[in-house]
Specification:
Helix content of chain A: over 70%
CATH architecture of chain A: Orthogonal Bundle
Number of helices of chain B: 13
Largest interface: A-B, 98 and 92 residues
Mean pLDDT of chain A: 89
CATH superfamily of the largest domain in chain B: MetI-like
Strand order of the largest sheet of chain B: 1-2
CATH architecture of the largest domain in chain B: Orthogonal Bundle
Shape of chain A: globular
Oligomer: heterodimer
Structural class of chain A: mainly alpha
Structural class of chain B: mainly alpha
Distance between the termini of chain A: 45 Å
CATH class of chain A: Mainly Alpha
Number of domains of chain B: 2
Chain lengths: 277, 301
């Protein structure tokens, strides 16, 4: 057994482990998808029926129409779009100011904002709830959107990117008589495009998947988002696995598609958050 | 000239304040003031609607004699300090396999990361189904190969291990990607040099690669521990509405679950805030300890 044989063997072992791991990662999803097309009887049958006798969409229709998931979809999409767009605007505007402009108390204000990092969001959820209830926002779209649009994390990340741009941009802008807002909007923001996409993708994911806040901030059916709807469904129809899995597929698919398309951005976003910490 | 310069500066200040105003005000209202509000509330008795009465440290005294809090602290710590090392250990293995430059590495990376993009509620839901003691495929598989098939969800001894297993499963992808980025940052010359010195693969891995990865490992353990102490989604989905209580709920309730339950099931804002303060203090202690000990094991080049 020469060096080549050794390398071949280690290659096979590596592939073996990676494939085994992939199976463990994928089986739950495959099982979820298969179950979502089955009837209840097929889903719980022993011995296991791997494939449904008939690939029908009844479960999906049931979940969408009878269990109102169409409405929850709409709510989740609206909330996610609003939160991530406004969050990005507020975050990048302040990031620009902190990175590129000088003004009194800049550092004090910056560290004041960063102090929020130290505190887990779960610690402040009760006062946050009390604030929105005082404002009369409980169970409205405002409750789902407004408290979530101030992302110190987004601000902090984008500040790093703005700070890395060359100083000459301001000088050129000033000579042209460019306003600060135009400097931000037309010149510097477009230069951060790829990092903005990476952060936005993460924010979309986070907003779409969040459970605790919507659970607290909304109560009616009308305002329910997918995560809450799924948890409720689990509570009410805990054993109707065929329906639960159809709901699971539907709540998951948009994010999986986004991930497949924007994988590059996910990985850079993730890796970046790791490197910079 | 002097005057003009001053004027320009003022204008810059004005715009800067306009730009940061939404962020600063929003963070004050929804981020910073609530911290103090929370501490304040922990010293009162309040149902969220009626009168607020100041009760000093009564809430803390009361919840510390409450069995629930003992369970919550125990479960949260057991969950966190088993999930995090197991996840890191497996992720280290996965990332070094991914770093071998094999074909299909990109595909493997996509697959391992997949659980991270799926809603935690959906993850918990699928696993509840997979772990069903009678019709779940995990037990069907275990029985088929002749292993014991426990009641993962309805046995108080197994519910927490089930939650840990699910969290490890879903955490590997994220951790492996961060570690992979760390591995790719190690220069190939170092490996060459180590090989020339006659080190074998295992020695290179444990004596060189792992020490060089310690900054990433430190970052990940800090983040994972912080996230672990705040676990809620999968617990809530697994045990559902806690009104019934019972041994299963007690065996899996965590601190954030407890805060949620006290505040929004029992409408006891004071006790819930006291528990939130306890969570905060625990996270602070763990984080401070980690940073204190980092120079014992973390290498910075």
């Amino acid at each position: 057994m020469g060096k080549r044989g050794h390398r071949l063997r280690s290659g096979i072992i590596s592939y073996g482990f990676l494939i085994l791991g992939s199976v463990v990662m994928l089986v739950p999803f495959i099982w979820m998808i298969l179950t979502s097309f089955k009837t209840y009887a097929e889903a719980v049958k022993i011995p296991v029926v791997w494939f449904p006798a008939e690939w029908n969409l009844d479960n999906y229709r049931d979940v969408l129409l009878r269990l109102d998931f169409l409405q929850y979809y709409k709510n989740t999409i609206i909330v996610t779009l609003l939160v991530t767009t406004i969050m990005l605007f507020i975050g990048s505007l302040s990031a620009f100011a902190f990175a590129r402009m000088s003004f009194p108390f800049k550092n004090v204000l910056f560290y004041l904002l960063l102090s929020v990092f130290m505190v887990p969001a779960q610690m402040t959820m009760i006062p946050k709830y009390l604030i929105i209830s005082r404002l009369g926002w409980v169970d409205t779209i405002w409750a789902l959107v407004i408290p979530n649009i101030f992302s110190v994390y987004t601000m902090f990340m984008l500040r790093q990117f703005f700070a890395a741009l060359p100083r000459e941009l301001e000088d050129a802008g000033k000579i042209d008589g460019c306003s600060w807002f135009r400097l931000y909007w037309n010149i510097e923001l477009p230069l951060c495009k790829s990092s903005i996409v990476a952060i936005t993708v993460l924010n979309v994911l986070w907003c779409w998947n969040d459970l605790l806040w919507p659970l607290i901030a909304t109560s009616s059916d009308k305002m329910r988002v997918l995560s809450v709807a799924m948890a409720t469904l689990q509570g009410q129809h805990g054993t109707e696995y065929h329906l639960l899995m159809a709901a699971g597929v539907m709540a998951t698919v948009p994010m999986v598609i986004m991930y497949m398309i924007g994988q590059k951005y996910f990985i850079t976003g993730i890796a970046f958050s790791g490197v910079k910490g | 000239m002097e005057q003009k310069k001053k004027f320009v500066f003022r204008k810059e200040w004005k715009w800067a304040y306009v730009f940061i105003a939404p962020m600063v005000l929003g963070t004050l209202i929804f981020g910073i003031i609530p911290i103090f509000f929370s501490i304040g509330l922990s010293l009162t008795n309040w149902d969220g609607l009626g009168e607020i009465t100041f009760t000093g440290l009564d809430n803390f005294k009361k919840i510390f004699t409450d069995d629930k809090l003992q369970y919550e602290i125990r479960n949260t710590l057991v969950y966190t300090f088993t999930t995090v090392p197991i996840t890191l250990f497996i992720s280290l293995g996965v990332s070094s396999l991914l770093n071998k430059g094999l074909k299909l590495t990109g595909m493997f990376r996509v697959i391992y990361f997949l659980p991270n993009v799926v809603m935690p509620v959906a993850v918990a839901m699928v696993w509840r189904w997979l772990l069903n003691s009678k019709v779940g495929i995990v037990n069907i598989f275990l029985k088929a190969i002749g292993l014991p098939a426990p009641n993962w969800i309805s046995d108080p001894d197994f519910i927490l291990p089930s939650l840990i297993m699910i969290s490890v499963w879903s955490g590997i992808g994220y951790n492996a990607i961060i570690l992979l980025a760390g591995l790719q940052g190690i220069s190939p010359e170092l490996y060459e040099a180590a090989k020339l010195d006659g080190a074998n693969g295992r020695q290179i891995f444990w004596r060189m690669t792992v020490p060089l990865l310690t900054p990433s490992l430190f970052f990940l353990s800090t983040m994972n521990i912080m996230n672990g102490m705040r676990v809620f989604d999968i617990v809530y989905t697994f045990i559902g509405k806690a009104d019934q209580g019972g041994p299963i709920v007690d065996a899996s309730r965590t601190l954030v679950f407890g805060i949620y339950e006290r505040a929004f099931s029992f409408m006891n804002m004071g006790e819930a805030s006291a528990e939130a303060v306890i969570l905060f203090i625990m996270i602070m202690i763990v984080t401070v300890v980690q940073f204190k000990f980092q120079d014992k094991w973390v290498f910075y080049e």
